[in-house]
Design goal:
This protein has a 9-stranded mixed sheet with strand order 3-2-6-7-5-8-4-1-12. It has a 3-stranded antiparallel sheet with strand order 9-10-11, with no helix packed on it. The chain is an alpha+beta fold. Strand 9 and strand 10 (339-342) form a beta hairpin. It contains 14 helices and 12 strands. Helix 5 runs antiparallel to helix 6 and helix 7 packs across helix 11. 43% of the residues lie in helices and 15% in strands. The longest helix has 20 residues, at 155-174. Residues 252-286 form the Peptidase A2 domain.
């Protein structure tokens, strides 16, 4: 009996851990090239999982494996699709810089992928502001200086200009006995961007861009308030107050800190016995904090009342709502609108520039 065969388009490498959104994109491109239907994709996807990814797949409920879209949604959630994963992606985005010899287009794509994981529903305008700011922060000083002279460019225009400026720089570095002035060479690229504004207008636009990024970067800019106050390095960053909060019978100023793994509270703010705690906590400078025990407390924020386990520490007037509290309350830090939201409500986030005392 005659049979027909068809050579499949090469598939992506097996996936164990990392950016599953990017891997699924490659898998779906291969599936389209092979004319696979959802049923075919559902059968083939598990065969390309290994290590942690295969273990996650095996532990999924049976109903999650009956439909391709349901399966990919479950896998995405398991690999950073939850609130904690989004915060981690945003932290990676804000610290991402261009690697040595990394192509400009590759650097830009990696920034876009991280931001997409951190803020999948961000509006295009806010997206471009964040991408522009981090792109400029992540490139070498000379290229950064050139890009800051063109504040009216869109993000895509900035990437295109940076690619050409980088090429000019590479050519000049290989020339013998002559130097290419990057600033002069870049003047020939004006056809790819708009006319340069006056210096005063340029500085005003840069300040506006910086202010917008500051407003959008709430969960990334904050640091562990308790750790920073004790840090031997003396480094501090802004934390964010989440409005009027009641801890037990008392109103207390609480700070949201997505960089804190557990939620902390000062012994002086609570009464009653504590549960023993063998866990250790360290500050941003590596110093060990004084952990006194654990205490379950009722905390009210806006219309939400929730019971949560706090680590009690020997510090003054401190109440930190960490990533564990945000996750248990199904809370999301809305960077664009400076809000802390949950399914049934929200409160405003206010920047806190001084340490709690």
């Amino acid at each position: 009996m005659a049979t027909s065969s068809r050579t499949s388009v090469a598939l992506p490498e097996t996936f164990s851990d990392g950016d599953i959104v990017l891997w699924l994109r490659k898998f779906e491109l291969c599936s389209t090239a092979n004319d696979w239907k959802d049923t075919d994709m559902l059968k083939r996807l598990p065969t390309l999982l290994s290590g942690k990814a295969f273990a996650v797949f095996e532990r999924l409920a049976a109903e999650a494996k009956e439909d391709y879209k349901t399966l990919t949604k479950a896998l995405t959630a398991a690999f950073g699709g939850d609130t904690t994963g989004k915060h981690l992606a945003m932290m990676a985005f804000r610290s991402r810089t261009r690697k040595p010899d990394e192509d400009i287009q590759v650097f830009a794509y990696n920034l876009e992928a991280l931001l997409r994981r951190a803020m999948p529903k961000i509006e295009n305008g806010d997206r471009d502001v964040l991408l522009q700011q981090q792109f400029i922060e992540g490139v070498p000083t000379e290229l950064k200086r050139e890009l800051l002279q063109r504040p009216s460019m869109s993000y895509e225009e900035m990437v295109a200009v940076a690619q050409q400026l980088d090429l000019v720089s590479q050519i000049s570095s290989h020339q013998t006995g002559s130097q290419v002035n990057l600033a002069s060479a870049s003047d020939n690229l004006q056809t790819t961007t708009r006319d340069q504004p006056l210096v005063a207008q340029l500085m005003e636009n840069v300040e506006t861009l910086t202010r917008k990024v500051s407003e959008l970067s709430v969960s990334v800019a904050n640091v562990n308030a308790t750790s920073a106050r004790n840090s031997t390095r003396g480094r501090r960053g802004p934390c964010y107050q989440c409005g009027k909060t009641r801890v037990g019978a008392h109103e207390q100023k609480c700070l949201v800190d997505t960089g804190a793994t557990v939620s902390l509270i000062s012994r002086e703010l609570i009464s009653g016995p504590l549960k023993p705690c063998s866990l250790k906590a360290r500050g941003i400078g590596g110093e060990e904090l004084q952990v006194l025990g654990m205490k379950e407390l009722e905390l009210s924020i806006g219309t939400l009342t929730i019971s949560h386990q706090f680590m009690v520490v020997g510090m003054r007037n401190t109440c930190i709502l960490g990533a564990d509290f945000l996750k248990s309350g199904r809370m999301v830090v809305d960077i664009a609108n400076s809000k802390l939201t949950w399914p049934s409500g929200e409160v405003a986030l206010v920047i806190e520039t001084t340490a709690p005392t």
